[in-house]
Amino acid sequence: MTQVATQTNKQVRIGPYVVTGKIGQGGIAEIFRARQESLNRDVAIKILFAKLCDDPEILRRFERESVVIARLNHPNIVHVIDKGKAGNRYYFVMEYVDGTSLREVMDSEKIPRRTKLEMIAQVCKALDYAHKNGVIHRDIKPANVLVDREGNPMVADFGIAQIVGSPDAEVTASDMIMGTLAYMSPEQKISSTNVDQTTDVYAMGVIIYEILVGKKPMGRFKMPSEIDGTIPPEYDIIVQHCLAQEAKDRYQSAEELKNAILNAIGGGTSQKKASDYAVADVESFVGNCQYLDTIKETKFSSTVLVENKVSKKFYVIKKHRKGEAGRKEAKLLTTLKHKNIINVLGSGGDLRNTVIVCDYAPGGSLADRMIRRYDWEKAMKIGLQIAAGLDFAHKNNIIHGNLRPSNLLFDAEDTVKIADFGMPVHYDAAGKKNWYSPPERKPSRQGDIYAAGVVLHQLMTGRNPSYDAGGNLRLDDVAGQIPDEIQKILSKLLAVRVALRYKTVNEMLLDYDDYDQRRQIALRRQQLPQEEPLPEKKTVPGWMIAAGIAIMITTILVVLYVSGTFN
Fold first, then answer.
1. Is the separation of the CB atoms in 204 and 233 below 8 Å?
2. Could you give the count of Cα atoms lying within 13 Å of 80 in the half-sphere of its Cβ?
3. What is the CATH architecture of 6-95?
4. Lesser CB count within 10 Å: N end or C end of the chain?
5. Cβ distance 193 to 162 under 8 Å?
Protein backbone atom coordinates (compact mmCIF):
# COMPACT_ATOMS: atom_id res chain seq x y z
CA MET A 1 0.00 0.00 0.00
CA THR A 2 2.97 2.34 0.45
CA GLN A 3 3.19 3.11 -3.26
CA VAL A 4 -0.46 3.88 -3.73
CA ALA A 5 -1.63 5.57 -0.57
CA THR A 6 -0.65 8.28 1.86
CA GLN A 7 -0.93 7.87 5.63
CA THR A 8 -2.24 10.77 7.70
CA ASN A 9 -3.06 10.41 11.43
CA LYS A 10 -3.01 6.61 11.00
CA GLN A 11 -5.52 6.85 8.12
CA VAL A 12 -4.55 5.21 4.86
CA ARG A 13 -5.69 7.27 1.89
CA ILE A 14 -5.97 6.61 -1.82
CA GLY A 15 -6.35 10.03 -3.35
CA PRO A 16 -9.27 11.66 -1.49
CA TYR A 17 -10.59 8.30 -0.17
CA VAL A 18 -9.91 6.82 3.29
CA VAL A 19 -9.27 3.07 3.13
CA THR A 20 -11.23 1.05 5.70
CA GLY A 21 -10.44 -2.51 4.65
CA LYS A 22 -9.63 -4.97 1.89
CA ILE A 23 -12.50 -6.67 0.05
CA GLY A 24 -10.53 -9.05 -2.15
CA GLN A 25 -8.39 -9.38 -5.23
CA GLY A 26 -8.41 -10.82 -8.73
CA GLY A 27 -5.86 -11.62 -11.37
CA ILE A 28 -4.77 -8.05 -12.09
CA ALA A 29 -6.09 -5.89 -9.26
CA GLU A 30 -7.07 -5.72 -5.61
CA ILE A 31 -10.23 -4.14 -4.26
CA PHE A 32 -10.55 -2.05 -1.11
CA ARG A 33 -13.44 -0.61 0.81
CA ALA A 34 -13.01 3.09 1.47
CA ARG A 35 -14.83 6.16 2.70
CA GLN A 36 -15.54 9.16 0.50
CA GLU A 37 -15.59 11.87 3.16
CA SER A 38 -16.93 14.62 0.90
CA LEU A 39 -20.20 12.73 0.44
CA ASN A 40 -20.04 10.61 3.60
CA ARG A 41 -20.47 7.29 1.79
CA ASP A 42 -18.65 3.99 1.37
CA VAL A 43 -17.06 3.16 -1.98
CA ALA A 44 -15.09 0.30 -3.51
CA ILE A 45 -11.69 1.05 -5.07
CA LYS A 46 -10.11 -1.27 -7.61
CA ILE A 47 -6.32 -0.82 -7.81
CA LEU A 48 -4.12 -2.33 -10.48
CA PHE A 49 -1.19 -4.37 -9.12
CA ALA A 50 2.06 -2.41 -9.19
CA LYS A 51 3.90 -5.11 -11.16
CA LEU A 52 1.34 -4.77 -13.99
CA CYS A 53 1.34 -0.98 -14.28
CA ASP A 54 4.09 -1.10 -16.92
CA ASP A 55 2.23 -3.63 -19.09
CA PRO A 56 0.53 -1.52 -21.81
CA GLU A 57 -2.04 -4.22 -22.66
CA ILE A 58 -3.10 -4.77 -19.03
CA LEU A 59 -3.15 -1.03 -18.40
CA ARG A 60 -5.31 -0.48 -21.49
CA ARG A 61 -7.82 -3.07 -20.34
CA PHE A 62 -7.90 -1.68 -16.80
CA GLU A 63 -8.48 1.85 -18.06
CA ARG A 64 -11.10 0.66 -20.51
CA GLU A 65 -13.05 -1.21 -17.81
CA SER A 66 -13.71 2.02 -15.91
CA VAL A 67 -14.81 3.76 -19.10
CA VAL A 68 -17.10 0.87 -20.08
CA ILE A 69 -18.90 0.77 -16.73
CA ALA A 70 -19.13 4.56 -16.53
CA ARG A 71 -21.05 4.54 -19.81
CA LEU A 72 -23.63 2.09 -18.46
CA ASN A 73 -26.23 3.67 -16.20
CA HIS A 74 -28.52 0.89 -15.00
CA PRO A 75 -29.82 -0.04 -11.53
CA ASN A 76 -28.48 -3.59 -11.92
CA ILE A 77 -24.96 -2.56 -12.96
CA VAL A 78 -22.32 -1.38 -10.49
CA HIS A 79 -21.63 2.32 -11.14
CA VAL A 80 -18.19 3.90 -11.58
CA ILE A 81 -17.76 7.09 -9.54
CA ASP A 82 -14.20 8.23 -10.18
CA LYS A 83 -10.79 7.18 -11.46
CA GLY A 84 -7.22 8.35 -11.01
CA LYS A 85 -3.58 7.55 -10.32
CA ALA A 86 -1.84 7.50 -6.94
CA GLY A 87 1.92 7.16 -7.12
CA ASN A 88 2.55 4.70 -9.93
CA ARG A 89 -0.69 2.78 -9.32
CA TYR A 90 -3.88 3.20 -11.31
CA TYR A 91 -7.30 2.91 -9.69
CA PHE A 92 -10.98 3.52 -10.26
CA VAL A 93 -13.77 3.99 -7.74
CA MET A 94 -17.14 2.20 -7.79
CA GLU A 95 -20.22 2.30 -5.63
CA TYR A 96 -19.91 -0.04 -2.68
CA VAL A 97 -22.42 -2.89 -2.71
CA ASP A 98 -23.16 -3.86 0.88
CA GLY A 99 -24.13 -7.49 0.64
CA THR A 100 -22.78 -10.65 -0.91
CA SER A 101 -22.23 -12.34 -4.26
CA LEU A 102 -24.61 -14.40 -6.37
CA ARG A 103 -22.29 -17.37 -5.70
CA GLU A 104 -23.14 -17.30 -2.00
CA VAL A 105 -26.83 -16.78 -2.76
CA MET A 106 -26.86 -19.81 -5.07
CA ASP A 107 -25.06 -21.95 -2.48
CA SER A 108 -27.49 -21.03 0.28
CA GLU A 109 -30.21 -23.61 0.96
CA LYS A 110 -32.20 -21.03 2.94
CA ILE A 111 -32.97 -18.93 -0.15
CA PRO A 112 -35.81 -20.33 -2.31
CA ARG A 113 -35.11 -21.37 -5.88
CA ARG A 114 -37.76 -18.92 -7.09
CA THR A 115 -35.96 -15.99 -5.44
CA LYS A 116 -32.68 -16.98 -7.08
CA LEU A 117 -34.36 -17.16 -10.51
CA GLU A 118 -35.96 -13.75 -9.97
CA MET A 119 -32.46 -12.38 -9.39
CA ILE A 120 -31.39 -13.95 -12.69
CA ALA A 121 -34.26 -12.12 -14.42
CA GLN A 122 -32.88 -8.87 -12.97
CA VAL A 123 -29.38 -9.71 -14.24
CA CYS A 124 -30.91 -10.28 -17.68
CA LYS A 125 -32.25 -6.71 -17.59
CA ALA A 126 -28.73 -5.40 -16.94
CA LEU A 127 -27.21 -7.52 -19.71
CA ASP A 128 -29.91 -6.55 -22.20
CA TYR A 129 -29.18 -2.88 -21.45
CA ALA A 130 -25.44 -3.44 -21.90
CA HIS A 131 -25.94 -5.38 -25.14
CA LYS A 132 -28.15 -2.66 -26.60
CA ASN A 133 -25.29 -0.26 -25.97
CA GLY A 134 -22.75 -2.47 -27.68
CA VAL A 135 -21.11 -3.98 -24.59
CA ILE A 136 -20.72 -7.77 -24.23
CA HIS A 137 -19.54 -8.81 -20.75
CA ARG A 138 -17.78 -12.08 -21.71
CA ASP A 139 -17.17 -13.13 -18.09
CA ILE A 140 -20.61 -13.63 -16.59
CA LYS A 141 -20.37 -15.92 -13.56
CA PRO A 142 -21.84 -15.92 -10.04
CA ALA A 143 -18.77 -14.24 -8.51
CA ASN A 144 -19.19 -11.26 -10.87
CA VAL A 145 -22.76 -10.55 -9.75
CA LEU A 146 -23.08 -8.76 -6.42
CA VAL A 147 -26.29 -8.84 -4.37
CA ASP A 148 -27.15 -6.04 -1.92
CA ARG A 149 -29.02 -6.48 1.36
CA GLU A 150 -32.37 -5.84 -0.37
CA GLY A 151 -31.74 -8.72 -2.76
CA ASN A 152 -30.95 -6.58 -5.80
CA PRO A 153 -28.30 -8.16 -8.06
CA MET A 154 -25.69 -5.90 -9.69
CA VAL A 155 -23.38 -6.95 -12.51
CA ALA A 156 -19.72 -6.09 -11.92
CA ASP A 157 -16.26 -6.76 -13.37
CA PHE A 158 -16.40 -5.64 -17.01
CA GLY A 159 -12.61 -6.09 -17.22
CA ILE A 160 -12.72 -8.18 -20.41
CA ALA A 161 -15.91 -6.72 -21.88
CA GLN A 162 -16.01 -6.26 -25.63
CA ILE A 163 -17.26 -2.98 -27.07
CA VAL A 164 -19.00 -3.82 -30.34
CA GLY A 165 -18.16 -1.51 -33.22
CA SER A 166 -15.38 0.29 -31.37
CA PRO A 167 -12.02 0.67 -33.13
CA ASP A 168 -10.52 -0.33 -29.78
CA ALA A 169 -12.82 -3.34 -29.48
CA GLU A 170 -10.02 -5.89 -29.57
CA VAL A 171 -6.35 -5.49 -30.28
CA THR A 172 -5.19 -8.80 -28.88
CA ALA A 173 -4.48 -11.94 -30.89
CA SER A 174 -7.61 -13.26 -32.55
CA ASP A 175 -7.16 -16.70 -30.95
CA MET A 176 -6.77 -15.39 -27.37
CA ILE A 177 -9.18 -16.99 -24.89
CA MET A 178 -10.48 -14.88 -22.01
CA GLY A 179 -13.14 -15.60 -19.42
CA THR A 180 -13.96 -18.40 -16.98
CA LEU A 181 -13.90 -21.82 -18.63
CA ALA A 182 -16.98 -23.32 -16.91
CA TYR A 183 -19.18 -20.47 -18.17
CA MET A 184 -17.71 -20.07 -21.66
CA SER A 185 -19.76 -20.69 -24.77
CA PRO A 186 -18.25 -23.08 -27.36
CA GLU A 187 -17.24 -20.21 -29.65
CA GLN A 188 -15.59 -18.29 -26.78
CA LYS A 189 -13.41 -21.31 -26.00
CA ILE A 190 -12.00 -20.96 -29.52
CA SER A 191 -11.59 -17.17 -29.61
CA SER A 192 -12.70 -14.33 -27.36
CA THR A 193 -13.20 -12.04 -30.34
CA ASN A 194 -15.69 -14.24 -32.17
CA VAL A 195 -18.59 -13.64 -29.78
CA ASP A 196 -21.89 -11.80 -29.62
CA GLN A 197 -24.64 -11.17 -27.04
CA THR A 198 -25.59 -14.87 -27.05
CA THR A 199 -22.23 -15.61 -25.39
CA ASP A 200 -23.51 -13.91 -22.24
CA VAL A 201 -26.84 -15.74 -22.66
CA TYR A 202 -24.92 -19.06 -22.68
CA ALA A 203 -23.19 -18.14 -19.40
CA MET A 204 -26.57 -17.29 -17.88
CA GLY A 205 -27.77 -20.74 -18.94
CA VAL A 206 -24.95 -22.35 -16.95
CA ILE A 207 -25.94 -20.32 -13.88
CA ILE A 208 -29.63 -21.24 -14.29
CA TYR A 209 -28.70 -24.93 -14.57
CA GLU A 210 -26.69 -24.64 -11.35
CA ILE A 211 -29.63 -23.02 -9.56
CA LEU A 212 -31.99 -25.76 -10.71
CA VAL A 213 -29.91 -28.89 -10.08
CA GLY A 214 -26.99 -27.75 -7.91
CA LYS A 215 -24.18 -28.48 -10.36
CA LYS A 216 -22.78 -27.24 -13.65
CA PRO A 217 -23.78 -28.86 -16.97
CA MET A 218 -20.92 -31.06 -18.13
CA GLY A 219 -20.60 -32.95 -21.41
CA ARG A 220 -23.89 -34.55 -22.52
CA PHE A 221 -25.77 -33.24 -19.51
CA LYS A 222 -29.27 -34.28 -18.48
CA MET A 223 -32.19 -31.87 -18.53
CA PRO A 224 -33.18 -30.45 -15.11
CA SER A 225 -36.49 -32.34 -15.00
CA GLU A 226 -34.60 -35.62 -15.59
CA ILE A 227 -32.54 -34.98 -12.47
CA ASP A 228 -35.37 -33.59 -10.36
CA GLY A 229 -38.90 -34.57 -11.29
CA THR A 230 -40.35 -31.58 -9.39
CA ILE A 231 -38.77 -29.15 -11.86
CA PRO A 232 -41.34 -28.01 -14.47
CA PRO A 233 -40.50 -28.82 -18.12
CA GLU A 234 -40.48 -25.07 -18.96
CA TYR A 235 -37.02 -24.92 -17.41
CA ASP A 236 -35.76 -27.67 -19.71
CA ILE A 237 -36.73 -25.46 -22.65
CA ILE A 238 -34.93 -22.46 -21.10
CA VAL A 239 -31.76 -24.51 -20.52
CA GLN A 240 -31.87 -25.92 -24.07
CA HIS A 241 -32.22 -22.46 -25.59
CA CYS A 242 -29.43 -20.99 -23.47
CA LEU A 243 -26.92 -23.82 -23.84
CA ALA A 244 -27.36 -24.56 -27.55
CA GLN A 245 -24.01 -25.23 -29.21
CA GLU A 246 -24.81 -22.90 -32.10
CA ALA A 247 -25.31 -19.23 -31.25
CA LYS A 248 -28.22 -18.95 -33.70
CA ASP A 249 -30.18 -21.56 -31.71
CA ARG A 250 -29.98 -19.64 -28.41
CA TYR A 251 -32.17 -16.83 -27.14
CA GLN A 252 -31.06 -13.92 -29.30
CA SER A 253 -31.31 -11.41 -26.47
CA ALA A 254 -31.16 -11.34 -22.68
CA GLU A 255 -34.62 -9.78 -22.85
CA GLU A 256 -36.01 -12.98 -24.41
CA LEU A 257 -34.38 -15.04 -21.66
CA LYS A 258 -35.76 -12.73 -18.97
CA ASN A 259 -39.29 -13.10 -20.34
CA ALA A 260 -38.96 -16.87 -20.48
CA ILE A 261 -37.84 -16.99 -16.83
CA LEU A 262 -40.65 -14.72 -15.69
CA ASN A 263 -43.14 -16.81 -17.62
CA ALA A 264 -41.81 -20.01 -16.01
CA ILE A 265 -41.92 -18.71 -12.44
CA GLY A 266 -45.20 -16.83 -12.97
CA GLY A 267 -44.05 -13.43 -11.77
CA GLY A 268 -41.86 -11.85 -9.13
CA THR A 269 -41.76 -11.92 -5.34
CA SER A 270 -44.02 -8.89 -5.33
CA GLN A 271 -47.54 -9.62 -4.20
CA LYS A 272 -48.83 -7.60 -7.13
CA LYS A 273 -51.47 -9.11 -9.36
CA ALA A 274 -52.71 -7.98 -12.74
CA SER A 275 -56.14 -7.53 -11.14
CA ASP A 276 -54.68 -4.70 -9.03
CA TYR A 277 -54.84 -2.65 -12.23
CA ALA A 278 -58.46 -3.45 -13.05
CA VAL A 279 -60.45 -0.22 -13.35
CA ALA A 280 -63.43 0.89 -15.36
CA ASP A 281 -63.22 -0.04 -19.07
CA VAL A 282 -60.27 -2.44 -18.75
CA GLU A 283 -61.49 -5.02 -16.19
CA SER A 284 -62.17 -7.78 -18.70
CA PHE A 285 -58.79 -7.46 -20.40
CA VAL A 286 -56.78 -7.21 -17.19
CA GLY A 287 -58.72 -10.12 -15.69
CA ASN A 288 -57.31 -12.41 -18.36
CA CYS A 289 -53.69 -11.49 -17.56
CA GLN A 290 -51.12 -12.57 -15.01
CA TYR A 291 -48.51 -10.23 -13.53
CA LEU A 292 -44.93 -10.97 -14.59
CA ASP A 293 -42.64 -8.08 -13.77
CA THR A 294 -42.44 -4.44 -12.68
CA ILE A 295 -40.77 -2.43 -15.43
CA LYS A 296 -40.72 0.87 -13.55
CA GLU A 297 -42.22 2.24 -10.37
CA THR A 298 -42.16 5.75 -8.89
CA LYS A 299 -44.31 7.57 -6.37
CA PHE A 300 -46.29 8.94 -9.33
CA SER A 301 -46.84 5.82 -11.43
CA SER A 302 -46.08 2.20 -12.10
CA THR A 303 -45.53 0.19 -15.27
CA VAL A 304 -45.84 -3.60 -15.21
CA LEU A 305 -45.42 -6.45 -17.66
CA VAL A 306 -48.27 -8.97 -17.87
CA GLU A 307 -49.04 -12.05 -19.92
CA ASN A 308 -52.43 -12.84 -21.39
CA LYS A 309 -53.37 -16.29 -20.07
CA VAL A 310 -55.11 -17.25 -23.31
CA SER A 311 -52.95 -15.79 -26.10
CA LYS A 312 -49.69 -15.98 -24.10
CA LYS A 313 -48.78 -12.54 -25.46
CA PHE A 314 -47.06 -9.89 -23.34
CA TYR A 315 -48.66 -6.52 -22.64
CA VAL A 316 -47.81 -3.45 -20.59
CA ILE A 317 -50.16 -1.88 -18.06
CA LYS A 318 -49.42 1.69 -16.99
CA LYS A 319 -51.09 3.27 -13.99
CA HIS A 320 -50.59 6.83 -12.75
CA ARG A 321 -52.08 8.88 -9.97
CA LYS A 322 -52.53 12.12 -11.88
CA GLY A 323 -56.24 11.98 -12.58
CA GLU A 324 -57.37 11.65 -16.18
CA ALA A 325 -54.16 12.79 -17.90
CA GLY A 326 -53.51 10.73 -21.04
CA ARG A 327 -56.84 8.91 -20.92
CA LYS A 328 -58.46 10.92 -23.73
CA GLU A 329 -55.46 10.39 -26.01
CA ALA A 330 -55.37 6.67 -25.19
CA LYS A 331 -59.07 6.24 -26.00
CA LEU A 332 -58.54 7.89 -29.38
CA LEU A 333 -55.55 5.69 -30.10
CA THR A 334 -57.53 2.50 -29.44
CA THR A 335 -59.34 3.28 -32.72
CA LEU A 336 -56.33 4.68 -34.62
CA LYS A 337 -53.34 2.59 -35.72
CA HIS A 338 -49.96 3.66 -37.09
CA LYS A 339 -46.76 1.66 -37.45
CA ASN A 340 -44.80 4.25 -35.42
CA ILE A 341 -47.26 4.55 -32.52
CA ILE A 342 -47.56 1.88 -29.83
CA ASN A 343 -50.78 -0.07 -30.13
CA VAL A 344 -53.18 0.91 -27.32
CA LEU A 345 -55.68 -1.79 -26.36
CA GLY A 346 -57.69 0.08 -23.75
CA SER A 347 -57.77 2.73 -21.05
CA GLY A 348 -59.89 3.59 -18.05
CA GLY A 349 -59.88 4.88 -14.53
CA ASP A 350 -61.55 7.26 -12.11
CA LEU A 351 -61.01 10.85 -10.98
CA ARG A 352 -57.70 9.98 -9.31
CA ASN A 353 -56.18 7.15 -11.35
CA THR A 354 -55.69 6.31 -15.00
CA VAL A 355 -54.79 2.88 -16.38
CA ILE A 356 -53.63 2.31 -19.96
CA VAL A 357 -53.03 -1.09 -21.58
CA CYS A 358 -50.75 -1.28 -24.60
CA ASP A 359 -48.54 -3.65 -26.55
CA TYR A 360 -45.19 -4.68 -25.13
CA ALA A 361 -42.14 -3.36 -27.01
CA PRO A 362 -39.33 -5.91 -26.42
CA GLY A 363 -36.66 -3.68 -27.97
CA GLY A 364 -36.65 -1.31 -24.99
CA SER A 365 -36.55 2.48 -25.17
CA LEU A 366 -34.36 4.92 -27.06
CA ALA A 367 -33.11 6.13 -23.67
CA ASP A 368 -31.42 2.73 -23.28
CA ARG A 369 -29.48 3.27 -26.53
CA MET A 370 -28.28 6.85 -26.25
CA ILE A 371 -24.91 6.31 -24.61
CA ARG A 372 -23.10 6.60 -27.94
CA ARG A 373 -23.45 9.24 -30.63
CA TYR A 374 -25.14 8.10 -33.82
CA ASP A 375 -23.93 9.00 -37.29
CA TRP A 376 -26.39 11.42 -38.86
CA GLU A 377 -27.92 8.90 -41.28
CA LYS A 378 -28.70 6.37 -38.56
CA ALA A 379 -30.04 9.15 -36.34
CA MET A 380 -32.18 10.43 -39.19
CA LYS A 381 -33.64 6.98 -39.74
CA ILE A 382 -34.92 7.06 -36.16
CA GLY A 383 -35.95 10.72 -36.43
CA LEU A 384 -38.02 10.12 -39.56
CA GLN A 385 -39.97 7.37 -37.80
CA ILE A 386 -40.64 9.67 -34.85
CA ALA A 387 -41.76 12.37 -37.29
CA ALA A 388 -44.08 9.98 -39.16
CA GLY A 389 -45.77 8.93 -35.92
CA LEU A 390 -46.16 12.52 -34.71
CA ASP A 391 -47.48 13.66 -38.08
CA PHE A 392 -50.20 11.00 -37.95
CA ALA A 393 -51.10 11.90 -34.37
CA HIS A 394 -51.23 15.64 -35.06
CA LYS A 395 -53.46 15.13 -38.11
CA ASN A 396 -55.83 13.30 -35.76
CA ASN A 397 -55.72 16.14 -33.21
CA ILE A 398 -53.57 14.21 -30.71
CA ILE A 399 -50.68 16.08 -29.06
CA HIS A 400 -48.02 14.17 -27.18
CA GLY A 401 -46.89 16.87 -24.77
CA ASN A 402 -44.04 14.93 -23.15
CA LEU A 403 -41.95 13.39 -25.95
CA ARG A 404 -38.56 12.11 -24.78
CA PRO A 405 -36.25 9.09 -25.36
CA SER A 406 -37.87 7.06 -22.55
CA ASN A 407 -41.22 6.94 -24.37
CA LEU A 408 -39.74 6.19 -27.78
CA LEU A 409 -39.79 2.39 -27.87
CA PHE A 410 -38.58 -0.33 -30.26
CA ASP A 411 -40.48 -3.45 -31.24
CA ALA A 412 -38.92 -6.81 -32.11
CA GLU A 413 -38.10 -5.55 -35.65
CA ASP A 414 -36.47 -2.37 -34.26
CA THR A 415 -39.31 -0.16 -35.50
CA VAL A 416 -39.81 3.01 -33.46
CA LYS A 417 -43.06 3.16 -31.47
CA ILE A 418 -44.14 6.39 -29.76
CA ALA A 419 -45.84 5.83 -26.39
CA ASP A 420 -47.37 7.83 -23.52
CA PHE A 421 -49.38 10.45 -25.43
CA GLY A 422 -50.80 13.04 -23.04
CA MET A 423 -49.23 11.43 -19.98
CA PRO A 424 -48.26 13.80 -17.11
CA VAL A 425 -44.80 15.35 -16.94
CA HIS A 426 -42.81 14.65 -13.78
CA TYR A 427 -39.27 14.10 -12.62
CA ASP A 428 -37.92 11.98 -9.79
CA ALA A 429 -35.09 14.46 -9.17
CA ALA A 430 -36.14 17.89 -7.94
CA GLY A 431 -34.86 20.79 -10.00
CA LYS A 432 -33.85 18.64 -12.96
CA LYS A 433 -34.14 20.56 -16.22
CA ASN A 434 -36.64 19.32 -18.78
CA TRP A 435 -34.57 19.57 -21.96
CA TYR A 436 -37.49 18.40 -24.09
CA SER A 437 -39.85 21.17 -23.05
CA PRO A 438 -40.16 23.95 -25.68
CA PRO A 439 -39.19 27.52 -24.70
CA GLU A 440 -42.87 28.54 -24.73
CA ARG A 441 -43.53 25.79 -22.11
CA LYS A 442 -46.94 24.65 -23.22
CA PRO A 443 -48.14 21.49 -24.98
CA SER A 444 -48.72 22.04 -28.70
CA ARG A 445 -47.89 20.59 -32.10
CA GLN A 446 -44.87 22.86 -32.33
CA GLY A 447 -43.91 21.85 -28.79
CA ASP A 448 -43.81 18.21 -29.95
CA ILE A 449 -41.75 19.31 -32.96
CA TYR A 450 -39.24 20.98 -30.64
CA ALA A 451 -39.02 17.85 -28.43
CA ALA A 452 -38.42 15.67 -31.50
CA GLY A 453 -35.67 18.09 -32.51
CA VAL A 454 -33.98 17.74 -29.12
CA VAL A 455 -33.99 13.95 -29.45
CA LEU A 456 -32.57 14.11 -32.98
CA HIS A 457 -29.96 16.66 -31.89
CA GLN A 458 -28.88 14.43 -28.97
CA LEU A 459 -28.53 11.44 -31.27
CA MET A 460 -26.36 13.32 -33.77
CA THR A 461 -24.23 15.42 -31.39
CA GLY A 462 -24.21 13.49 -28.13
CA ARG A 463 -25.21 16.61 -26.20
CA ASN A 464 -28.17 18.87 -25.46
CA PRO A 465 -28.91 21.87 -27.71
CA SER A 466 -27.20 25.19 -27.01
CA TYR A 467 -27.59 28.62 -28.61
CA ASP A 468 -25.45 31.68 -29.27
CA ALA A 469 -26.33 35.19 -28.12
CA GLY A 470 -28.52 35.66 -31.18
CA GLY A 471 -30.59 32.57 -30.42
CA ASN A 472 -29.00 30.52 -33.23
CA LEU A 473 -28.45 26.80 -32.66
CA ARG A 474 -24.77 25.97 -32.10
CA LEU A 475 -23.54 23.21 -34.40
CA ASP A 476 -19.91 24.23 -34.86
CA ASP A 477 -18.58 21.03 -33.27
CA VAL A 478 -20.34 18.82 -35.83
CA ALA A 479 -20.14 21.07 -38.89
CA GLY A 480 -17.93 18.65 -40.80
CA GLN A 481 -19.93 15.57 -39.81
CA ILE A 482 -23.51 16.61 -40.59
CA PRO A 483 -24.56 17.94 -44.04
CA ASP A 484 -25.56 21.60 -44.18
CA GLU A 485 -29.12 20.70 -45.20
CA ILE A 486 -29.54 18.47 -42.13
CA GLN A 487 -28.16 21.23 -39.93
CA LYS A 488 -30.79 23.55 -41.37
CA ILE A 489 -33.50 21.00 -40.56
CA LEU A 490 -32.22 20.77 -36.98
CA SER A 491 -32.20 24.55 -36.69
CA LYS A 492 -35.82 24.77 -37.84
CA LEU A 493 -36.89 21.99 -35.48
CA LEU A 494 -35.18 23.72 -32.56
CA ALA A 495 -35.88 27.38 -33.34
CA VAL A 496 -36.40 29.23 -30.05
CA ARG A 497 -38.95 31.55 -31.68
CA VAL A 498 -42.11 29.65 -32.59
CA ALA A 499 -42.51 31.73 -35.77
CA LEU A 500 -39.20 30.34 -37.09
CA ARG A 501 -39.95 26.73 -36.15
CA TYR A 502 -41.65 24.19 -38.41
CA LYS A 503 -45.41 24.67 -38.16
CA THR A 504 -46.11 21.02 -38.96
CA VAL A 505 -44.10 17.81 -38.89
CA ASN A 506 -44.97 17.32 -42.56
CA GLU A 507 -42.94 20.43 -43.46
CA MET A 508 -39.88 18.79 -41.96
CA LEU A 509 -40.60 15.52 -43.79
CA LEU A 510 -40.92 17.38 -47.10
CA ASP A 511 -37.63 19.24 -46.50
CA TYR A 512 -35.81 15.99 -45.83
CA ASP A 513 -37.46 14.25 -48.79
CA ASP A 514 -36.36 17.10 -51.08
CA TYR A 515 -32.79 16.91 -49.77
CA ASP A 516 -32.71 13.10 -49.99
CA GLN A 517 -33.92 13.10 -53.61
CA ARG A 518 -31.19 15.55 -54.63
CA ARG A 519 -28.64 13.52 -52.68
CA GLN A 520 -29.68 10.25 -54.34
CA ILE A 521 -29.47 11.82 -57.81
CA ALA A 522 -25.98 13.09 -57.03
CA LEU A 523 -24.92 9.65 -55.76
CA ARG A 524 -26.24 7.96 -58.92
CA ARG A 525 -24.32 10.41 -61.08
CA GLN A 526 -21.15 9.58 -59.21
CA GLN A 527 -21.74 5.87 -59.80
CA LEU A 528 -22.27 6.21 -63.60
CA PRO A 529 -19.27 5.07 -65.72
CA GLN A 530 -17.25 7.96 -67.08
CA GLU A 531 -17.57 8.44 -70.88
CA GLU A 532 -14.40 8.36 -72.95
CA PRO A 533 -13.62 11.91 -74.17
CA LEU A 534 -13.95 12.46 -77.93
CA PRO A 535 -10.62 12.93 -79.76
CA GLU A 536 -9.73 16.56 -80.07
CA LYS A 537 -10.45 18.02 -83.50
CA LYS A 538 -7.32 19.30 -85.20
CA THR A 539 -7.53 22.47 -87.30
CA VAL A 540 -5.62 22.32 -90.64
CA PRO A 541 -3.81 25.60 -91.51
CA GLY A 542 -5.07 27.46 -94.64
CA TRP A 543 -1.69 27.39 -96.37
CA MET A 544 -1.68 23.58 -96.22
CA ILE A 545 -5.14 23.42 -97.79
CA ALA A 546 -4.04 25.80 -100.59
CA ALA A 547 -0.85 23.80 -101.17
CA GLY A 548 -2.84 20.59 -101.38
CA ILE A 549 -5.21 22.07 -103.94
CA ALA A 550 -2.26 23.36 -106.02
CA ILE A 551 -0.59 19.94 -105.98
CA MET A 552 -3.83 18.25 -106.98
CA ILE A 553 -4.35 20.66 -109.96
CA THR A 554 -0.75 20.26 -111.11
CA THR A 555 -1.08 16.47 -110.98
CA ILE A 556 -4.22 16.58 -113.14
CA LEU A 557 -2.55 18.85 -115.75
CA VAL A 558 0.48 16.57 -115.97
CA VAL A 559 -1.74 13.52 -116.48
CA LEU A 560 -3.68 15.29 -119.24
CA TYR A 561 -0.49 16.40 -121.01
CA VAL A 562 1.06 12.96 -120.92
CA SER A 563 -2.13 11.37 -122.25
CA GLY A 564 -2.05 13.72 -125.29
CA THR A 565 -5.15 15.57 -124.40
CA PHE A 566 -3.50 18.89 -125.25
CA ASN A 567 -1.93 17.60 -128.56
1. no
2. 21
3. 2-Layer Sandwich (3.30)
4. C
5. yes
Q: pLDDT tens for residues 229-271?
A: 999 999 999 999 999 999 999 999 999 999 899 889 875 444 5
CA dihedral of 259, 265, 270, 275, whole degrees rounded to 10? 80
Q: What global pTM score does this model have? A: 0.71
HSE of 41, CA atoms in CB hemisphere, 13 A: 11
Q: What angle do CA 294, 299, 305 make, to 5 degrees?
A: 15
The residues carrying an active-site annotation are 139
- Per-residue pLDDT tens for 429-478? 455 678 899 999 889 999 999 999 999 999 999 889 999 998 999 998 88
Other beta carbons within 10 angstroms of residue 54's beta carbon come to 9
Class of the CATH domain delimited by 366-522: mainly alpha
- Distance from CA of residue 206 to its chain's centroid? 26
Question: What are the structural domain ranges in the chain?
Answer: 6-95, 99-265, 274-359, 366-522, 539-567
Assess whether the region 6-95 and the region 274-359 belong to the same CATH fold. yes
Q: Is 153 helix (H, G, I), strand (E, B) or coil?
A: strand
